[in-house]
Amino acid sequence: MVKKHKDRPDSGSANCKDSKVYTDTFEVTEENGGDIQMPMLKTVLIVEDNEINRGVLHNLLASAYQVLEADNGQAALEVLQSRHEEISLILLDINMPVMDGYTFLSHIKANSSFSSIPVIVTTQSDSEADEVSALSHGASDFVPKPYKARIILHRVASIIRLRETAAMINQFQYDRLTGLYSKEYFYQRVREIFQQYPERQFDLIASDIENFKLINDILGVAAGDRLLQGIAGQYRQMVGDKGICGRLNADQFVCLLENNKVYTADMFASTLEQVNALPNAQNVVMKWGIYYVEDRTLPVEQMCDRALLAARSIKGQYGKHFAAYDDKLRGELLRQQAIIDGMETALSEGQFMLYLQPKYRIRDNKLVGAEALIRWNHPIWGFQLPAEFIPLFEKNGFIAKLDQFVWDKACSTLREWDEKGYLPISISVNVSRADIYNINIIEILMDTVRRHGLRPSRLHLEITESAYTEQPAQIIETITKLRELGFIIEMDDFGSGYSSLNMLNQMPLDILKLDMKFIQGETGKSVGQGILQTIVELARRMRLSVVAEGVETKEQLDRVAETGCDYVQGYYFAKPMPIQDLEALLKERRAAELLVEDNDCIAAPHFGMRLRPLRQLLLIADVDQEYRKEVEKTFSRHFQVIHSTEADSTLTFVTQYKDQLAAVLISKSLPGLDGFTVFEMLKDELEVWNIPVLVTGAQDSEAEERALELGAFDYADKPHTAKSLLKRTLKAIRLSSFQEREHALQNEANRDHMTGFLNRRGLEAAIHTMGKEDTPFAFCLFDLDDLKKTNDTLGYTEGDRIIQEITRLIRAQSRKSDILARYGGDEFIVILKQIQSADVVVKRVEGICRALKKNTFEQDIQASASAGIVISENLENGMDEVFRQADMALYRAKTNHKGSSCLWRNEDESLQGFKENARE
């Protein structure tokens, strides 16, 4: 809630020179979270002893800001005492009587009420030493005299915006609904408390509401929200000043208290009675879990998970209100932790072993390759199958290091066999999503094959089909580069996903590996044989080879052979085996002379690789050769400098090196096209890549104004020294990085971390951007059925897998222009813009619901989602009514049959009418 007070006159301080300044104060109240007052004013305080300079600055800023003045540091401190909440920025002179600028800086940085106000130092000196001194005393920026109007306004606006962004990010510390700490900030505060009080003992207590989803369904979301707010109030009352509390997820709360070993059932029963006395509570059942903090080296997230595990262990047990994290739960986690603790040692001591499963060519039954698999031969536990440790490694990122071990071992094995004169086969290795996202995979793979003297095509890279569906753009770009370098790309588990055929045309592929379950489930049916035949024919037209994996019987082999499949692997031929066993097979079939001539086993030509420069590039576009040499001499310590002398080459360099450029220096008088024209042609690309531009030229106020209007960071009058130009350039790069971080923070604040969809805040912002051109639109509200039950019985890992799967399905059925949001823990909103037909929307939604039902999850999980759909053209009254209608349609879909969808027709229609329109 925002309250705006009436304008009020200046406070009347004797040190405040402008007695006619009026201000507004905005008070932001966060419901159930207390009042948070935040200054929203853009008021600038000028601290300058020279009256003429003060006047110049006042006149420059008065049109855009409210201005206060002080003639020395002491007077400025007195202004801050009474008006610091209003002040957004301080312009500070260094050399002043009574109190100089440096002393003033030390005072404000020592005062927590003033320290967050940014300060721009203004001084007659332009020396690097003065700038360093000002920044070391806490200044945000440094501007030399004489003042340049556009530069001053530009710097002031940028720094105020950065401060406001920081204030906005600070608000994310609190949960919007309850006012308690958000999950991430709660974790941070716990870590800080542990550091502050190392000698004290603490307990983490987490709670979970049984069947909270039912409360939302019966009483409505608003009533559920009010209940959560009431419980948050109970937590505040219970914890008081003895600890801190936060909201973890929808109905899960947690608090940190000083250790109290004596917890009784009466304590929690009394708290539950108080909860049920709340206006919106009806037979609420809560369970609490306690984790006694003994090992502070554990991540706080893991401590909270342990408390929640304890709470979930007593779900459904009548009369039992709390449980402590015990040995049984500890045993399960200790096993996982032991695996994690031992992984580095296992890798260094050679406990991980490479196993190879042979791959045969069907037409002549020749061994042409193998798939690399990993086994862990633990000195105590014995052989561990990948299912035991790979999922953990994928979560903690160790999988990237393990994959690199496999790559290197596979290449060294191939090299050793080549030297022995064996069959020059290929080995397929796995490339995980973590490899693509977290390491410089291209350089690592190229370095690996080069060290062992192999062609890239000897190493086949297996990418699972599901990996393509999550962030296809990034994966496709990386895989395309690897394929151009000569690596052979295989799509693993083809046929197990939902969008296989739709995605094939986009993928840079050489080989399809048909999923084992697909072959086993379909080859016994005539229709299945037809599907298999169709896929192989499609692969032929796309010039792809096909590998059938998981072939276990002679019948299966005959069927895949009939379809024209190229290669096969499976238990019918051989199980995965140690390297020496496969080498024995190669010895038995020593036919290297014949197979060398076989094109299927000869590597593709090697393509050269252009590595990214180690230093960032700086482009200087100027016709003056001596000027360019002087600039390069000064800048070479920081950048690799590239030159351009005319418009065409400038355009070429920017488009070619845009991802490597740190900045561009461009003369306004380039031959061919002037610098301004070139700048305008490149403006969009420069902004996208966040490349700062400095325009250089003769002193010209109109040219300077035009450059800044176009978006240049600065205009440097000629003549100038290369050293001063370097300082300006470094400052431009520094500010650009701030702006990039600002954008990233804002984007992160609007995104759901797990799915990448918009969160509630992002959804609201996206809806505000919708216009008449987006109508008619479809508002689709999805709800995962019984997700809470899955979380409670099988854990959040399994629940998260269902969330990720419906995320993938929704994304596959949506366009880039559509709005995709995760509205709550198990609710998703999809807004399809410019729809042509309601039937098309219904079919899409039905397809998503059906696909989720058919999906096979571990532990026999039956996942389903229900959906409510509204078609609307009304944007004038917001989305509240549309959301209400979608929620009603969703409710009626669930009433009819979970896993179905319902299209809203008319509020007056009977329930039967909705049932008739509900589709499974």
UniProtKB/TrEMBL annotation:
Entry-annotated residues carrying 4-aspartylphosphate: D93
Stored Pfam families: EAL (PF00563), GGDEF (PF00990), Response_reg (PF00072)
Coiled coil feature spans: none
Record-linked CDD domains: EAL, GGDEF
Response regulatory domain: residues covered: 43-160, 617-733
SMART domains linked: EAL (SM00052), GGDEF (SM00267), REC (SM00448)
Keywords carried by this UniProt record: Phosphoprotein
GO molecular function, one term: cyclic-guanylate-specific phosphodiesterase activity
Role played: May play the central regulatory role in sporulation. It may be an element of the effector pathway responsible for the activation of sporulation genes in response to nutritional stress. Spo0A may act in concert with spo0H (a sigma factor) to control the expression of some genes that are critical to the sporulation process.
Protein name (record): Stage 0 sporulation protein A homolog
